[in-house]
Amino acid sequence: MKLVVAGATSFVATEVIRQALQLPQVTSVVALARRPVQPPPDLPANVDTSKLKNVVLEDFGVYSDQAKTELRQTDACIYCAAITPSQIRERGTTVAEAKQVCHDYAMILFRNLVESRDNATTPLRLTYMSGFAVTRDLDKEMNWPQGMGPYVKMRGAAEIDVIAFANDSKGMVEAGCVRPALIIGSKREDVLKKGLQAFPNPQMVAVEEVAAAMLSQSMFGFEKEPLLNDDLCQMGKQALQDWKKEIPQFSPSVSPSRAEVLSLRDQL
Fold it and tell me: Are 124 and 173 in contact (CB under 8 A)?
């Protein structure tokens, strides 16, 4: 399977790449980002890191002929690029600017991937990483915290368009969205603190579980759509368990436990 990981320098994408490089079913990993991505330095020695290819884009809205060539015959894509609500608050980014990354660039990439699949006999599988509070009911009135309403509706509209793109493809595309809650990881204490300050008792999911669930769906198809936080925990745990049995040296990241995260919260 040839896999494209968009937003490849992000926290979750880094884990997706780490696991994908260790899976024999994945023959090529194309990292799509604004700067080159290196393989994780602590992978098992037997991992073939030459599977990782970089496509560096200055503008995610424009694909050169060379970039399109690198994307040819892609089997699956995991779209991790995003501007988060915390980034909007900290950087002063507008929802319109976030939409360009979360929606517009995703649709441009997906169209390019479809156009690059000459004589494909299997559907292109697209996984779109969304957010925990997102809904596709754009008329639903909810008391979103910290002014998140317009952002959440923008993400809901993006999900609608991703699924419609697949539905209109006449079987050429399959798509699914995932909605993780607070994503925990071993090197993310500063981000966790910000999340815990905003949501003191959040739902959580480990980054290795999110990555494994998305990779599993990319390889084997979409069991459920969308995948909610509990689904990601369950599916990710199962995939990791299976891969550790199949690949003795399989080495995902190891996130702190929920108890450790809550201990961090109590220190705030």
Answer: yes
